[in-house]
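Complex record, two chains
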Amino acid sequence: MTIRVKYFAILREQRGLDEESITTMVSSVSELYSELSAQFGFTLDPQFVRTAVNGDFVDDDHLLTDNDEVVYIPPVAGG
Amino acid sequence: MFLITADRIRPVEIEYAQAGGFVIFEGKVRNSHKGRQVVALEYEAFEEMAVNEGQKLLDETQEKFGLIAATAIHRTGRLEIGETAVWIAVAAQHRREAFAGCEFIIDEIKKRVPIWKKEHYAEGDSGWIGCEEQKDALSGHE
C-alpha cells in the first residue's frame, strides 16, 4: 500500500524532506515508524513519538489503510 | 479562536460587558535556556492539526473554568530575543478563573499542540527542545 508521510521538526531535518509517498508492506503505524527509522536514521525513540493519521491522534497499533496521511509527532514544545 | 501566524503577533481586541477579569499572557523569546546563551528561536507547526488541537483546548478550558472567552495566537518561523512567541487572552466574570484558565491554556499548549521549537545558541549550534534531551537521557548522558 501507499502511505503519504509528513515530517516536522527534527524528523523533517533527519529525513531531509517535508513529505513523501512511501510504499510499504507493514501494517501498523509503529511498524512503519520502525521501518522509516531504520532507513533514515531517526534518533527519536518511538516511545516519545505520537502519531496522527488523517489529522487525528491514533494509538501505536493503529492499522494503516492505503492512501493514509501519516504524521509522526516529535515531542512538542510550543509556548 | 486559536491562530497560528508567521507574522508578528498583533493583540486582538477583546471586550465583554459581563467580564470583570481579563488576563493576557505573552510568552517571549528569552536569551538563555539551561545556562546556554540563546540568540534566536525557530518555531514550526503542523498547522492544520495545531489549529484543531488548539481550538479544542480553548473550548475545553472555557468549559472547565467557566470562562466567557479565550483566544490564543502562536508564532511560527524565526524569532529574535524579545519577540512574542505566544499570546493568550482570557475573559471571565472574575479574576480567579481568568488567571487559572490562562495558566491552564499555556501549560496545555506546551504539552499537546503540535508546535516545535528549535533554539539557536551563541556558539552557533542549535537543538530541537524536547527532542535532543531524550536522546541523551536514553544514552545516560546529562
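Note: The first helix of chain B runs from residue 47 to 65.
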